[in-house]
Amino acid sequence: MNMIHQFYCQFGKRAFDLVLTIPALIVFSPLFVIIAVLVRVKLGAPILFRQQRPGRTGQPFTVYKFRTMTDAQGPTGLMLPDAERLTNFGRWLRNTSLDELPELLNVLKGEMSLVGPRPLLMRYFPYFSDEERLRFTIRPGITGLAQISGRNDLSWDERCAVDVQYVHRCSFLLDVRIMSLTLWRVIDRRGLQVDPGATMLDFDEERRRRAAKRLE
């Protein structure tokens, strides 16, 4: 890790986040209000989806998103599968990535970065290899190298490898490139899956099955 890379990762990256995030929150504030009202009318309360995710060094933080699913329950009182609770409005929010806007608040608080490995579920944490855990040496991001390299079309192994690649290559120019290409990915929606669980196993389930096969 050279000095320029180290300086940017430790100091410059945070400045980059704040310089872009503060104006974005001001510019998009009317859109925040409009989406919040629509979520309240169409899906009810709460407006924001909150969930614990592992951040830098694996420390848990609460990620914010606009809610996209109902709380519909089956006859047994358990929540229905995600695909059945995802409304057309929720699909639109995910298709346009507008559900991610509240994560700007996480960036402002210093829990996330604009660019970095996507924050995954807490239950996935024990299943990362030592090499893959390098993704936790920097803040998770709203977008990242994996998102412009195929998004959900990538396998879990490929996504983790790309995340580690980003950690090694992190730079101002790379972050600008990723931000620019992210805008295009949002427009063309290539590789986007609004319900990834319908087409691929969860990370922890895939790793458990792999471990079980090794023991056979």
Characterization of this structure:
With about 220 residues, this protein is mainly alpha-helical. It has one domain (about 5-215). The protein has 8 helices and 4 strands, in the order H-H-E-E-H-H-H-E-E-H-H-H. The strands form 2 sheets. A two-stranded antiparallel ribbon has the order 1-2. A two-stranded parallel sheet has the order 3-4.
Summarize the structure.
The chain is mainly alpha-helical. The protein has one domain (3-215). It has helices spanning 3-27, 29-43, 82-85, 88-95, 103-108, 156-169, 172-188, 203-215, and strands spanning 48-54, 60-66, 113-115, 141-143.
Mean model confidence by pLDDT = 89
Give the SSE order as H and E letters.
HHEEHHHEEHHH
Distance between the termini: 41 Å
Give the uncertain stretches in residue-range form: none
**Main structural class:** mainly alpha
Please give the count of helices: 8
Helix content: 40-55%
Largest sheet: 2 strands, antiparallel
The spatial strand order of the largest sheet comes to: 1-2
Radius of gyration using CA atoms only: 18 Å
